Amino acid sequence: MNAKFQAHRAARLGVGEDVKLVTEGVSLQAKQHITIANLRSKRFTIRPVAQLSGLIVSVGISTLIQRMLPPTFISTRPYSWVGVIAVPISMSLAMFVIVNFLNYTRWRAVAAEHSIQSLAELAAFIAGRRRLGLRQEWAAHLAGDSGHDPVSWEKLKQAVGFLVSAVRYRCSDAADAAWTPVDAILKSRILSNLFVLLPTAAAGCLVLRHEGTLGVVTAAESIGAIGATLYGLIRTGRWWRNVKPPEPKAWSAKE
Amino acid sequence: MDVLDVLTNSPPDNPAWGLRLCQVTGHGTGTIYPVLDRLLKAGWIKDYWEDPPPADRPRRRFYEITSTGREQYTVALRARDERRAAWLRPSPQPGTAS
Q1: Which of A86, A123, A164, A187 is the most exposed, fewest CB within 10 Å of its CB?
Q2: Which of residues 2-61 of B touch A (CB under 8 A)?
Q3: What are the residues facing B61 on neighbouring strands?
Q4: Could you read off the pLDDT of A110-122 as tens digits, one per residue?
Q5: B29–A141 CB contact, under 8 Å
Q6: Are B39 and B70 within 8 A, CB to CB?
Q7: Helix, coil or strand: residue B62
Q8: d(CA B40, CA B46)
């Protein structure tokens, strides 16, 4: 994966504001730094600040609660210091959960982006080395018209479509490979003639060996039917595959 | 046919590529790309990459119909129209022919 594509990917991982910062006049390296810096600032600064503020608020609330309670309540309860520690910790945990929940949509977007990219790359892998360009073509397709389209269900459908395409490519390749010997027979007059004559002659020889000349005469229709069927197959195959054999060579006149 | 229609009507300064073909024809990627592959193999269309490559996104692969493809497509369209006309034409009633 080259630097350009990494920058593009980093830009797409961010939200719209990140992409907007990638302006025309900035060099590629600078764009990458800007985008990654934005991502870092959003990912790693919001959470500690929120947690710290949550901790301060929770300590304040627990202090208030303890002041509001009558002193006898606190003094009569053993282990009340546990509450003094447990309340801020639990509230801090609650803030942690809330902040992470707020970041959940962002995580989900990043995870979905990675999943879709992985699907497209898997599809390109299945399509084979003969179609190396598909990786980039499909990446451009997923990037959308703008080049930075956000993640959507439509993209997931497109990525699944890439998988279907890759499987169909492979099926097509297998069919082509299977047709190769058939096409060789259909294209060559010699091979076509051998395909018709050899089984017919073999059938004739078999009948001659077991039933003699009279048997051959009796089974002439059947032997002819074998030849006709095979010839029909050749003609049908040529029509079906749109194959034309070379014109027969004219006999060279010997002087 | 849809794909060839789009390719035939694409202007040279705004050539067709995979996403646009999907959007215009309404077919999914699982249909469009195998069709493009078959057309490329048959020589009806040709492909080329976006040049110069853009800095902020992957480059696109454009498709263009060849002269052979245009001819074959015209022939195929004509044959299809003839088939349709023959199918829709009412068969002559016995006794009406003079």
Answers
A1: A86
A2: 17-19, 22, 28-31, 33-34, 37-38, 49, 53-61
A3: B49
A4: 777 778 888 888 8
A5: yes
A6: no
A7: strand
A8: 6
CA distance B32 to A164: 11
Closest chain A residue to the Cα of B17, Cα to Cα:
A141
Structure tokens at A76: 């009569």
* Dihedral (Cα; A227, A230, A232, A236), 10-degree rounding: -170
How many beta carbons lie within 10 A of that of residue A226, not counting itself? 17
Residues A137, B60: C-beta atoms closer than 8 Å? yes
CA count, 13 A, side-chain hemisphere, A241: 21
- Give me the phi and psi of B17, to 5 degrees please: -140, 175
Q: Is B17 helix (H, G, I), strand (E, B) or coil?
A: strand
C-alpha A66/C-alpha A119 separation (Å) is 56
Task: Give yes or no for residue A9 having a pLDDT over 70.
Answer: no
Instruction: Identify the bridge partners of residue B65 per DSSP, sorted by sequence position.
Output: B45
Tens of pLDDT, residue by residue over A235-254, are 999 999 888 888 777 665 55
Q: What tokens does A216 get?
A: 């051959």
Backbone angles phi, psi at A67, to 5 degrees: -75, -35
Residues A183 and A242: their CA atoms lie apart, in Å, by 10
Write the burial class of residue A6 (CB in 10 Å: 0-12 exposed, 13-18 middle, 19+ buried): middle
ipTM > 0.85, yes or no: no
CB A34 within 8 A of CB A22: yes
Of A31, A144, A161, the CB nearest to B56: A31
Contact call for A143 and B57, based on CB within 8 A = yes
User: Which of B4-30 are b and which e, b meaning 16 or more Cβ less than 10 Å from the residue's Cβ?
Assistant: bebbeebeeeebbbbbbbbeebebbbb
Q: Please name the residues between 59 and 88 in chain B that touch chain A, using a CB distance below 8 Å.
A: 59-61
pTM higher than 0.80: no
